[in-house]
UniProtKB/TrEMBL annotation:
Pfam families cross-referenced by the UniProt entry: SEC-C (PF02810)
Protein name from the UniProt record: SEC-C domain-containing protein
UniProt superkingdom: Bacteria
InterPro entries assigned: SEC_C_motif (IPR004027)
Length: 372
């Protein structure tokens, strides 16, 4: 490949070749320390994801906001030392575990936190779920949804930063390796930018509802139990396949907006809840939910375990419950955790399909719907 020094660089950066990839293979490679430094800086970004209409109320203090209630939910499933099991997703930890993500002990003060709200708005927006018993009204379901969407936006924007870092991390590599890394990052950014656009549009709808500018057009499914759920999670996903292995939507087609499902599993006043929330017009998500509702209630907790660990990273587990699992059950969960780690692999169609490995420890008492 021959390119003139003053021609546009082949990587589509817009820069001249002499100011971009010319001689890149002879440059000093990015060190492990630089990569770790980027990871730490990226995870320490401070923002408040409140509506633009409320920005003037922001305090100067951005806090470690919990996406899962510390007092009501994490403390409920923590061990005597106030630790839960969760994933420590950082470059140093991935290096230490040789590329594997495994459940490790995390203190409840650190679990599920992100620097995504100021102290004023973290209190104002989520008091309805932090300070009173969960009854499953629309205000509480909206608050759960809002927090999950903000956390996912924060994560996706962080992924975009990391993708940009990757573009500059091809120093000291052969031209072929440089081309592969640049193409990989470019393809990744297409998907990330599409996800950010969709999440921003969903958040805009939630902002309007919070501000009373529009009536609710959201649907919620609430699964209840008389005892705490041993797994706590707060996340959002665009489901690809359902619990029967049927294809729900093709996320590879970026010309079509993906339909999103928000889900939370938590405890409140000694009771356990799983709440699914989505836009009422999202027919594909409804099809996914109906595949869950078709499962026998006695097997639904096992289906939820497959779902939580198979599609969400922001998942935390009771050490006591984990200690009751067999090696086969733990192996299944660890396999589910790794199912979405390799970006070069597609999600298996049977990810959520029953495979004979069952889980116990939470009995479902009732299932309710709002605006279904």
């Amino acid at each position: 490949m021959k390119i003139g020094r003053n021609e546009k660089c082949w990587c589509n950066s817009g820069k001249k070749f002499k100011h971009c990839h010319y001689g890149r293979e002879t440059e000093q490679p990015v060190s492990k320390g630089e990569a770790i430094g980027h990871t730490k800086k990226n995870s320490s970004r401070k923002l408040c994801y409140v509506s633009a209409d409320l920005k003037h109320e922001c305090s100067n203090k951005i806090i470690n906001a919990h996406t899962i209630s510390k007092s009501g939910s994490l403390k409920e499933i923590a061990d005597e030392s106030n630790h839960v099991l969760g994933l420590k997703i950082s470059l140093p930890n991935i290096i230490k575990n040789k590329g594997k993500l495994i459940p490790e002990k995390i203190g409840i003060n650190q679990a599920s936190t992100f620097k995504g709200f100021c102290s004023t708005h973290d209190k104002a927006l989520f008091a309805c779920i932090e300070d009173r018993e969960f009854v499953g009204d629309e205000e509480q379901c909206l608050a759960l949804m809002y927090r999950s969407v903000a956390k996912e936006l924060y994560a996706k924007e962080g992924m975009l930063n990391t993708s940009e870092f990757l573009k500059g991390a091809d120093k000291g590599r052969s031209t072929l390796e440089q081309m592969f890394m640049q193409q990989f990052a470019a393809d990744q950014q297409l998907g990330i930018n599409a996800a950010i656009k969709e999440l921003s549009e969903l958040k805009s709808k939630l902002d309007k509802q919070l501000l009373g500018k529009c009536s609710g057009n959201l649907t919620h499914l609430i699964i209840k139990s008389s005892k705490p759920v041993p797994v706590a999670v707060s996340s959002i996903v665009s489901p690809i396949s359902d619990f029967a292995g049927n294809l729900i939507q093709d996320l590879g087609d970026l010309s079509v907006d993906a339909q999103q499902l928000v889900f939370n599993a938590f405890s409140s006043d000694g009771k356990g809840y799983v709440v699914f929330s989505w836009a009422k017009e999202s027919q594909k998500v409804l099809d996914f939910i109906n595949s869950l509702l078709a499962i026998d209630k006695n097997k639904m907790f096992s289906a939820l375990i497959r779902f939580f660990f198979g599609v969400a990273e922001n998942t935390f587990t009771s050490p006591l419950w984990w200690g009751t699992l067999t090696n086969e059950q733990k192996g299944k969960i660890e396999k589910l955790i790794m199912s979405g780690v390799n970006p070069m692999e597609f999600e298996p169609k049977d990810l959520l399909v029953e495979d004979g490995i069952e889980f116990s420890g939470w009995e479902i008492a009732s299932i309710e719907t709002i605006n279904f």
